[in-house]
């Protein structure tokens, strides 16, 4: 399939052929959901922790005798029933991540790219070359109508573009190897350079 290529100033720069097997799939929500869930679970720190009864700082002495008090039978003050005691079955430090095969992760990225293409939210630009000035780039982005956009460049990102885009709200840039389902789906517009298209097609074939 063909898609027009534009420049950052809005001018035309020819067209590019996009592979049907990457940009022309019928997007499946179940595949995208599984990949996004895998990404978010792996990103979760899992550092939440509570103290168990063996870690709280009370005496381990039995608080009163077993029989004859008329009260319940208790051991020490660290029991979960008491204020300041240990927590029963609370969260512990652990990993929330789970496995997902490489083939499925690759399929998820294809479906994310196809979803953007199908929604008309995919833009191909000639390159991400800019003079490195935030004001100039912000004006170009506004003229192009990009509110929340992700730019995917080739093997490495354009340093001048990266420098200029740092202080523009809603604009991010990633190298082609950093392209992922979550970042693509949460932006309104996906912008790919010609070098980025070639790199993605080489990565996903």
Automatic annotation (TrEMBL):
GO terms for biological process: translation. InterPro entries: Ribosomal_uL4, Ribosomal_uL4-like, Ribosomal_uL4_dom_sf. Coiled coil: none annotated. One of its GO terms (cellular component) is ribonucleoprotein complex. One of its GO terms (molecular function) is rRNA binding. Pfam families: Ribosomal_L4. Keywords: Ribonucleoprotein, Ribosomal protein, RNA-binding, rRNA-binding. HAMAP family: Ribosomal_uL4_B (MF_01328_B). One of the primary rRNA binding proteins, this protein initially binds near the 5'-end of the 23S rRNA. It is important during the early stages of 50S assembly. It makes multiple contacts with different domains of the 23S rRNA in the assembled 50S subunit and ribosome. PANTHER family: 50S RIBOSOMAL PROTEIN L4 (PTHR10746), LARGE RIBOSOMAL SUBUNIT PROTEIN UL4M (PTHR10746:SF6). Belongs to the universal ribosomal protein uL4 family. Part of the 50S ribosomal subunit. This is Large ribosomal subunit protein uL4. It comes from Roseovarius albus. The gene is rplD.
């Amino acid at each position: 399939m063909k898609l027009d290529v534009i420049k950052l100033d809005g001018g035309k720069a020819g067209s590019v052929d996009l592979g049907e097997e990457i940009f022309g799939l019928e997007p499946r929500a179940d595949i995208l959901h599984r990949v996004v869930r895998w990404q978010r679970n792996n990103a979760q720190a899992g550092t939440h922790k509570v103290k168990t009864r063996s870690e709280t700082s009370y005496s381990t002495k039995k608080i009163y005798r077993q029989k004859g008090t008329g009260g319940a039978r208790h051991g020490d003050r660290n029991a979960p029933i008491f204020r300041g005691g240990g927590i029963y079955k609370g969260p512990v430090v652990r990993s929330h991540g789970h496995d997902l095969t490489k083939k499925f992760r690759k399929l998820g990225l294809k479906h994310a790219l196809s979803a953007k293409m199908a929604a008309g939210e995919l833009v191909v630009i000639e390159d991400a070359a800019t003079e490195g000035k935030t004001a100039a780039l912000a004006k170009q982005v506004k003229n192009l109508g990009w509110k929340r956009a992700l730019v995917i460049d080739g093997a490495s990102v354009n340093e001048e573009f990266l420098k200029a885009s740092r202080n523009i709200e809603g604009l991010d840039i990633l190298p082609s190897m950093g392209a992922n389902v979550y970042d693509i789906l949460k932006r309104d517009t996906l912008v790919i350079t010609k070098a980025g298209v070639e790199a993605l097609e080489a990565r996903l074939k």
